[in-house]
Amino acid sequence: MTWPDDLRVCGMRASIAASFLTALICTHGFAQGQQDKQAGRGTIVRLAPVRQMREDVDLWPLILHPKSSAERRINAALTRLNEDLKNKVNDCLSGEFAWSKDSFSSGEWQRATKVTMRGPRLLSMVAADGFYCGGAHPDDDLTVVVFDLDTGEQLDWHAQVSNSAGSSLPKTAVGDENGTPPLTLPELQVIYATAQEDHCKDYFEDERSFVLWPDAESGTLVAEVAGLPHVALPCKNELKLTIEKARKLGFDESLLEAIQEAHRAAATGSTTRPVRKRPAPTAASHADSR
Prior knowledge:
The chain is an alpha+beta fold. It has a single domain (45-268), classed as Fervidobacterium nodosum Rt17-B1 like (Heat Shock Protein 90, 2-Layer Sandwich), CATH 3.30.565. The chain is built from five helices and eight strands; from the N terminus they run H-E-E-H-E-E-E-H-E-E-E-H-H. The protein has helices spanning 5-42, 69-94, 186-194, 243-248, 253-268, and strands spanning 52-54, 57-58, 108-118, 122-132, 139-148, 209-215, 220-226, 239-241.
C-alpha cells in the first residue's frame, strides 16, 4: 500500500516531534538530578521544631520545605522511623515487652534527640533513649541516623573509608536496626580502647563495631562502641576524632571537608540543639521478674 505524500509528511513530523519530546523529558530529568545533587552538597537544611509523641519522648524532626527529591526521601524515612518508635514505646508502656506480664503492668520510656549536622552533604541526628520494659533494671540505647543529602539514603560508612583501612559493616547490626549501620574499623578500635579506663579494656579484646556521626559544633567525627553488654555501659563513651585523626584512619577527604565547613557555619550561628538532661528511668530498684 502506498501512502499519499501528505500522510508521509505528517508521519515524519510526528516522529520528529516525539523524538524531540523524549529528549526534552530526559534532559529535564538529568538536569533535575544534577540540580538536586548540587543542592545537597551545599545546602544547610532547616528543620522543624522537635515534637514529642508524649512527655519526654522526642520524635525525629523533619526537614522544613524540602526542595529536592533527596530531602523528600529523607522526610519519608524519618516519618517511618517515628512511626516505628511510637509502636515500640506504646508496646513498652502497655507491658507488651515485659519478661513476665503477671508482675509487670507498664513501662517507662524517655528519648532526647540532638541534631549534630544540618549540611553540607550530611544530615546527622542522634537520639538517647532510657527505658524500662520489664526485667531487673532500666536500659539505654543510642540511635544514630546520618543521611546523605545527595541521595536521601542513610550513609554507608564502609564506603567512606579507604580500602586499605580494613573496614567492614557487621553482618548483624547490634542495637537499633533502624539507625545508620555501625562500622568495624580495627585501628579505630585500638584508639577507642586505649582511651578507656583499665576495667573496660577486656571488653575490647574481641572485635567491636562503632556508631559514627559528624558533629558540627566541635568539628569532629564522633565514635561510640555498639553492642556492649549492659554491665559494660560505663565503657560506652563518645570518642571525638579530630579531622587529622579521622584522616589518618582513612576517612574520605570530602567527608572531612564537609564537617569542617559545617563547623565554620556553626561558629556563626547555632546549628545544633543540645540534649535536654533527664533523669534515668525510675525503675532501677525493680526486682528481676524473669
